[in-house]
Amino acid sequence: MIDLALLPLYLTTVIALLLIPGPDMLLIASSSLSYGKKVGVYASFGNATSGLILTLLAAMGVSAVIAMNPMALEVLRVLGAAYLLKMGWDCIRSSAAEAPEISQQNNLAKLLYKRAVVSNLLNPKALIFFVLFLPQFVSTQLTASSGEQMLALGLLLNVMGLAFNLLLVALVGTVGKPLLNNEKFRTYQNKFMGGIFFILAIWLLASQVQNIS
């Protein structure tokens, strides 16, 4: 359900987009650096889950309807920023004694998975990206509907994104491994992640979201 003539251009464009630093990359990299590879892997799967949901919404045309409503986009932006600020505040106010032990990584990994899913779904720019990007590679030469083609394109995008994020986790997690055993770093571990969430919130609030009508 993907036009093979357009596939090389699509793959090249996706790779270029993945290499551009963004909020998803920042969240996944900082999670891996602060809490280890397992947490970074879960954050990567959280990002992939939200990407899959956005792909389905784009294929069904739901995301286009939302993207054409300026009020809906603004509500998403404010809710997303508020959620990130809440996560940042929870991390900042936690004490050093609450820094997670390695044995607590399972619970922490699940928490970062949920945060990655929600933060991306509440980012209106992510929704608009799927609305504007995928249709460019829908071909009139195929018998498959535009919705079916967008679904296939979105799935390929998410698979490539997940592979890239897992590679990022492996690299950052390896570099950051000594920090996990550093008592001084662990004292500021949660504060560091709190700062990341604040940065993401400011990033979202400062971004200009345009409707596509």
Automatic annotation (TrEMBL):
Bilayer-crossing regions: 52-76, 117-138, 150-172, 192-210
Record membrane topology: Multi-pass membrane protein
Record keywords: Cell membrane, Membrane, Transmembrane, Transmembrane helix
Subcellular location per UniProt equals: Cell membrane
Cellular component per GO, a single term = plasma membrane
Q: Please, which domain of life does this record's source organism belong to?
A: Bacteria
The GO molecular function terms of this record are: amino acid transmembrane transporter activity
Q: Which InterPro entries match?
A: LeuE-type
Protein name as it appears in the record:
LysE family translocator
Q: Which organism is it from?
A: Shewanella pneumatophori
